[in-house]
Amino acid sequence: MGSGRYKARRTGVGLAVALGAALSFGMSGAWARGLIDAGWTPGAAVTARIWVAALVLLVPAVLALRGRWGLLRRNAGMIVAYGLLAVTATQLCYFQAVAVMDVGIALLIEYTAPVAVVLWLWLRRGEQPTRRSILGAVVAFIGLVLMLDVLTGARVDVGGIFWALAAMVGAATYFVLSAREDTGLPPIVLAAAGLLLGGVGLTLAGIVGVLPMAWSFADVGYRFGTLPWFVPVLAIGVLATALAYVLGIASTRMLGSRLASFIALAEVVAALLFGWLLLGQLPAPVQLVGGVLVLAGVVIVKLGEPAAAAELVEPLPESAR
Q1: pLDDT digits over 230-248, tens only?
Q2: Which residues pair with 221 in a beta bridge?
Q3: What is the spatial distance between Cα 318 and Cα 120, in angstroms, rounded to a whole number?
Q4: Which helix (DSSP H) or strand (DSSP E) does residue 34 occupy?
């Protein structure tokens, strides 16, 4: 009975934290698009975002470690994967996508990750999806066609679509790695280490010329007016990154990657809201219908996952068993 109350309380707190993470993550694209329109390259915007977040979390992360530096050595491989894929690749690809398409549409494409995972497991491992998963994939595909508005002859930015799909791969990695509870790493330490590694990697890429870097100190224009350049930089660094990653990792550990990825769909709604508030971007009616179908399809796919697979990514804490 006690374990049941603990699990219910843990789930309730996890849901609230996950919604906070979705709201924080959802504002990043709109703030970044303002910087990009003001002359920043996506590479410069994401590098500034990651460095601000890494510096904000550095001291709290060191305090959370309490001298247990061995945890970093034992989890070096996971931290590298988290920093390069879940943090750097996801953010950079998403910013590249929002540079040429609406932030909400880019994020909706990114959140087709569960559908892609089902298809990959089928083709790669022969794990045949359930009928519900197949239905969800079909619904999501129809929604994607409507969302991209290709039926009306609208211009489709192929490059933006591929960048959003690349961000999708990073998002899937984020959920899988964040759910691991066997590392001993406090959530804030994993977030700070991954962000610091990502910041160093992006900076080196910019120095050698692999990643185009350009920025401007001019005011940045949004729907409600203009702001000094450092305001959106701090907003995406502190609110949409440092806070978002800590809340996201904490909620994923409380809920498991399967349930957390459900709640994270609220990020799409948040992105559409901030895209409208800050940029005046509002999808056409047919795109909104497509977005609803994509979200519905993803939910159906997740519900169609085999129970055994869900258990593998949602281990209960020892005290709840």
Answers
A1: 999 999 999 998 888 888 8
A2: 226
A3: 32
A4: helix 28-37
What single string gives the DSSP state of each residue in 256-286? -HHHHHHHTTHHHHHHHHHIIIII-----HH
Q: Residue 13 and residue 255: Cα distance in Å, rounded?
A: 9
Which amino acid, 19? L
Residues 86/194, Cβ–Cβ less than 8 Å: yes
Q: What is the pLDDT of residues 115-134, one digit of tens each?
A: 666 666 677 667 677 788 77
- CA atoms of 157 and 155, how far apart (whole Å): 7
Q: What's the rounded Cα separation, in Å, for the pair 97 and 91?
A: 10
Write out pLDDT tens, residues 244-289: 888 888 887 787 766 777 777 788 778 888 888 898 887 778 777 8
Q: Which residue's structure tokens are 């590298």? A: 80
Give the rounded distance of the alpha carbon of 32 from its chain centre.
Answer: 14
CA-to-CA separations, 49 to 55, 195, 234, 235, in angstroms, rounded: 10, 9, 8, 9
C-alpha to C-alpha distance for 170 and 94, rounded to whole angstroms: 10
Q: Between these two residues, 78 and 1, which has the higher pLDDT value?
A: 78
In sequence order, the 6+-apart residues with CB closer than 8 A to the CB of 213 are 41, 43, 44, 47, 206
Q: How far apart are CA 267 and CA 243, in angstroms?
A: 14
Residues 261-282: b if buried by 16+ CB within 10 A, e if exposed? bbbbbbbbbbbbebbbebbebe
Given a cut of 80, whether residue 89 has pLDDT beyond it is yes
Please answer whether residues 256 and 315 qualify as being in contact, where contact means their C-beta atoms are separated by less than 8 angstroms. yes
